[in-house]
Write a structure and sequence with these properties.
Blueprint lengths: L5 E5 L14 H16 L2 E2 L9 H10 L4 E8 L7 E4 L8 H15 L3 E5 L12 H8 L4 E9 H4 L3 H15 L9 H12 L4 H9 L2 H11 L9
Parallel strand pairs: 1-2, 1-3, 3-6, 4-5
Antiparallel strand pairs: 4-6
Length: 228
């Protein structure tokens, strides 16, 4: 939907940008990206804490066959609350998409939406953010920077916020859920329930619907959210 194959760019690097005690933007965004990859098998510019320069991020996404990229971030200072999306100044047609996505993300996290914006140097023509400039130069159709609230907002119930945003991105860009084997689906259920895989063999014998339930999960037609 909208742009074709989407890449995600976990912003910064391990230990970058301290927020409230124990929260680091670079670490949280990597966790965020890995959950997106786990759910949709999407391309990530980084899967470790290693830093990448801004040019590398766009080039990696393009070389992986991606058409567009979303750079994952949270914001500072504390007063910079709410969801903000930056889009390229050369692509005003992206504003409605960015606004729709931002509203959905904000709603899912219970935050305010502060708008879809551009930011340029004093010439009014050149994108301020290098990840946008270099992504377009690499040949990507577009690049969004998404600030998923402030560090202080995202640090509260981080795991739940990530899960909510992962679901929004999947639906918004129509990304199919990653397929699993039957055994992998059983493991997912076991991990979420905190019980042994052997338990499900008993359930399968008792409940005839259970096998279809696991097959649907494995095929990606069913997605589970953590928590109650």
């Amino acid at each position: 939907m909208y742009f074709g194959k989407m890449a995600f760019d976990p912003g910064h690097y391990a230990g970058a940008n301290l927020g409230p005690a124990g929260y680091y933007e670079g670490d949280a965004m990597l966790q965020f990206g890995l959950e997106l990859q786990k759910a949709y098998d999407c391309f990530l510019t980084r899967t470790t804490g290693k830093d990448l320069d801004l040019k590398q991020r766009g080039l990696l996404a393009k070389s992986a066959g991606c058409d567009a990229m979303i750079s994952l971030h949270t914001n500072a200072p504390k007063e910079a609350s709410g969801v903000i999306i930056f889009y390229p100044v050369s692509r005003p047609q992206d504003k409605p998409v960015a606004e729709a996505l931002g509203k959905e993300l904000a709603k899912a996290m219970g935050l305010t939406f502060r708008g879809a914006k551009t930011r340029t140097f004093s010439d009014g023509k050149t994108d301020y953010y290098g990840v946008i400039r270099d992504g377009l130069r690499a040949g990507l159709k577009t690049v969004f920077i998404v600030e998923h609230g402030s560090h202080w907002e995202f640090a509260v119930n981080t795991k739940a916020k990530i899960a909510a945003c992962v679901e929004v991105y999947g639906k918004f860009f129509e990304m199919p859920a990653k397929e699993m084997t039957y055994e992998q689906a059983l493991q997912v259920l076991s991990d979420m329930a905190g019980i042994s895989v052997g338990y499900w063999a008993v359930r399968k014998d008792i409940d005839r619907w259970f096998e279809k339930f696991v097959i649907d999960l494995a095929k990606g037609t069913l997605r589970l959210k953590e928590g109650k």
